[in-house]
Amino acid sequence: MSSTGKRPNVIVFFTDQQRWDTTGVHGNPLDLTPNFDRMATRGTHLYNTFSMQPVCGPARACMQTGQYATVNGSFRNGIPLSPDAKTIAHYFNDAGYRTGYIGKWHLAPGNKPVPEEYRGGYQEWLASNVLEYTSRAYETTMYDENNEAVQLPGYRADALTDAAIRFIDRNKQDPFFLFVSYVEPHNQNQRDDYPAPESYRGRYTSRWVPPDLAEFRGSAHRHLDGYYGMVKRLDESLGRLQDTLISLKLDKDTILVFTSDHACHFRTRNVEYKRSCHESSIRVPTAICGPGFDSGGQLRELVTLLDIAPTLLDAAGLEVPAHMQGRSVLPLVRRQSADWPDDVLIQISESQVGRAVRTARWKYGVDAPGFDPSKDMYADKYVEQYLYDLESDPYELQNLIGFPSHREVADRLQQRLIRRMTAIGEPEPTIEPAPPVRSGQRQVLDWELEL
């Protein structure tokens, strides 16, 4: 409960394609995220948070339903979330909350307006199905409950934030659940650009480059300036929402969560920006503050987007439905004993039919050649693709798969991966071991496979 004894308000601040290491609390030296960093320090910082399906639509389907993409059915972009699917909004509706959605949806047919039956139960609506196709940096068009086009002034992130502030002010008397889904720092598809606000253009050119982007070929040196500028403006938007809550005296009564659908590898792992099981695709910044989460500290357990919906329902005093495959992190925040999983399963579609298991130390990934990622949710036969020691190689620069010295580790992780896959209803696969790397032979790097 909030400080007033009422159920707490809940706001989800959802970004698109944001790497975890854009934040100061994860070591970025450019001071891009002072508001997020303060939120993570004063609230609860979920230090190891992952997208379990690093593609826009599937990640959002997982987030809304608390189910894996192969369970809710939206395992790639272009597959709408079923109108019969129960989302987090339905449960807040049932509890008397006013629910609202603003921004990018990506779970309906088409690119522009979203038919009412595909809106996931949200009551107030101002969104586009694929926002990057109905807007540009300074031209924002979304659609209201009547599917009427609404043009909003200002830089796009600011325009969505303005709409969110209006929603909060309208609904400040009663409990509300607001999901604000930004498109930043996603690239602008039509021009393959990362359009920052004009005032930030050039500010971050030739500044800090993460080790993986510095090591491998890709577009980072061309795009990081704009990408960082978009991150900076998002953080300013977060600060504006925090200021709004303070001014309306809602800050002690509102749970605020910040996270992203997936990250960005800037064409270093495949031919585009995501759709791989590498840290640069799956690891995202996540923090929660407000009732139940203030002074929660930094949690190092492995968390995924599947855990967000159960966590927010639990924190609002609502029952977590049995069909959700994620878990509430509240027992971790309270330092109560919790049988928390020590690994996470990552699924990937579109670029490949792939799977990976990630533990605190290791990443083990497999691929299913011959299967069609546009049609096949899963496969019955995979081959080993990579093994990384994240303790000594956190940016995954050295692929250890096939090294005889790591065969035993790979075998153990293979069994972990199979257990994880079958536990969520996938058929038990066979996994072909990688051919041994001979003494003196150099392991081929992932990006070289694309040449």
| Total strands | 17
Q: Helices and strands: which structural class? A: alpha/beta
> How does the major sheet shape up?
9 strands, mixed
Order of helices and strands: EHEHHHEEHEEEHEHHEHEEEHHEEEEHE
Distance between the termini: 55 Å
* Average of the residue pLDDT scores: 94
Task: Based on Cα principal axes, name the global outline.
Answer: globular
Radius of gyration: 21 Å
Low-confidence stretches: 446-451
Count up the helices.
12
Indicate the proportion of strand residues. Answer: 15-25%
Helix content: 25-40%
Structure notes:
This protein is of the alpha/beta class and 451 residues long. Helices cover 25% and strands 21% of the residues. The chain has 12 helices and 17 strands. The strands form 3 sheets. Strands 1, 2, 3, 4, 8, 9, 10, 11 and 12 form a 9-stranded mixed sheet that branches. Strands 13-14-15-16-17 form a 5-stranded mixed sheet, covered by helices on one side. A 3-stranded antiparallel sheet has the order 5-6-7. The longest helix has 28 residues, at 220-247. The radius of gyration is 21 Å and the shape is globular.
